[in-house]
């Protein structure tokens, strides 16, 4: 069965665009928090079809982009230790740290591998009993259960050479931090996959505190158009709260089993966001009971970390204060082939989306 | 930031590969035959006009759904000659073999090379064999070189010098089959509908096209870097651009589904049996229907046009009517696929 075709239907898209045009009376700034949304919007050219009153901002929801330089440096330092295999997800290996990227560490002989699932990490740990397997965990509510389940399974199977370093982050705290900082955002397109796991309920305090409308959206063009229309309606009717457009996957409560596992393994902590800085309660670290799996507690490593590159305005872009095209490095010194900032590296980064798709 | 070491992405066929070739190899080897960086070089020996090319094959796994490394090594080189407008005649084959490779596997590969050469009407006329210690290569690497005759009236195809505004972009079939067949073999994916590599010698298709009364301005086989990269290279520094229509681009449902899962864009996936042709307006429908009679190009379709509106760029109209830019592949989407 084909689930996506209807969500790319030009007839439906045209109807929604017409409704958006008819409903929009005021200028609004809407932030899509999730990198997947940024990509989908640019890929289908939605921003070229909307009325001029609607401005779309890209937010801090690309996990690679918000991973701070010190974490990259930490991962590179671990990768360079003898008898060590460093595992991570996709694009992280290309993000430049102070002394190069994981990709470059790999080219110089470090054993760095990309995995798709944390179960692969456990397999690699079982197959290499004499080596330390370090998983650099990145991502939001969507990928956190994967790390949690790996830790629980490793404990059950008594795997002692599996460790993690965590840059895991949670979304609502960052969305609140942006508003606290005074960034003008009238409404949020809420992250669909994060909400599938954590439930739309995690955004209720945010909506209530800041009296802001949030619509949890799917990732197809018609999903996004409908979400934008729902937000415009809420704004024009001066309503706030959390509504779910992506109802085929998202519920208020989310995936209870995944949430339980995450709570069992992790506890909140302050987390550093690239370009934004520390946000209290926005990170997750292993609970004491699971400290056997904490790489930093068991394997000492020296990390040399320098300042983030000057002139790169990733931070301002992640906060929606600047557009990638405002950056002096954009398309000149910073390209997907030779990235300077993380927003250009990740396929879900705002700079990469603008670079590849803006016409 | 320029890389200090060779990265996997330097072999992707995208921008990193291109930069390496231009900034290092062309810098030292530069000559008028090489500098065009075409699929094959057009040379002349005592009045004979020839097309000459070479390619190495390092694919993992060496057997995959729909083919093997040997079949690919023959068809890939035949195709590089064919899309230059040449008639492939002779191939050479060099083998770098890892100690421990099963002779039975090697025989299967060599046998399919012979079959593929026979199918393409070429002879393998010279070869070389080297064996390296275990771990010094991955099972088997093959290099093939090929040479063929190029009729005078086809010499413009390689350079694309006759491309102009209004020309149509033709694609001979679905995108991404090869790359996704390799990925499924590697990741043990079992899609509902088995995806086979499209690896095939395409001189049948190019000859059919060139003998049809249609005016072809350019042809490229769509390998590493995918359709997007080839189209970007076609209009780089030219006075025209290319506009594509997303809803016209054929991709098998099973390939689409895996692309959705992995976040791949079929426009950047490698193929080993598909050609992009640029054909003069007015002759495209005739060419399309003629190509559809040949099994290797049965899904031939017009997917876009050459336009004066976006000089030097490739743009695509999305399913819902929005516009987006299409750029070259920058790094690596998949591990070695050809």
Overall description:
With 359 residues, chain A is an alpha/beta fold. Chain A has helices at 10-23, 35-44, 69-79, 102-107, 118-127, 144-156, 171-180, 192-198, 204-210, 221-236, 256-265, 295-298, 314-318, 342-345, 350-357, and strands spanning 28-34, 54-61, 84-88, 111-114, 132-137, 162-166, 187-190, 213-216, 241-244, 266-273, 277-286. A 5-stranded parallel beta sheet of chain A has the order 2-1-7-8-9. A 4-stranded parallel beta sheet of chain A has the order 4-3-5-6, with helices on both faces. In chain A, helix 1 (10-23) packs parallel to helix 10, helix 5 (118-127) packs parallel to helix 6 and helix 6 (144-156) packs across helix 11. The longest helix of chain A is centred in the middle third of the chain and has 16 residues, at 221-236. Helix content of chain B is 29%, strand content 25%. Chain B has 9 helices and 14 strands. Chain B has helices at 15-29, 69-82, 103-120, 156-159, 177-187, 203-211, 226-235, 253-262, 284-291; strands at residues 41-45, 48-57, 63-64, 67-68, 87-98, 123-132, 140-149, 168-171, 216-221, 241-245, 275-279, 301-307, 314-317, 323-326. Chain B has a 7-stranded mixed beta sheet with strand order 9-11-8-12-10-13-14, with helices on both faces. In chain B, strands 1-2-7-5-6 form a 5-stranded mixed beta sheet, covered by helices on one side. Chain B has a two-stranded antiparallel ribbon with strand order 3-4. The longest helix of chain B is centred in the N-terminal third of the chain and has 18 residues, at 103-120. The model of chain B has no long low-confidence stretch (mean pLDDT 93). The A-B interface holds A 2, 4, 8-10, 13-14, 42-49, 94, 96, 103-104, 107-108, 116, 221-222, 225, 335-340, 347, 355-359 and B 1-9, 14-16, 19, 187, 247, 253, 256, 260, 263, 310, 313, 315, 317-327, 330-331.
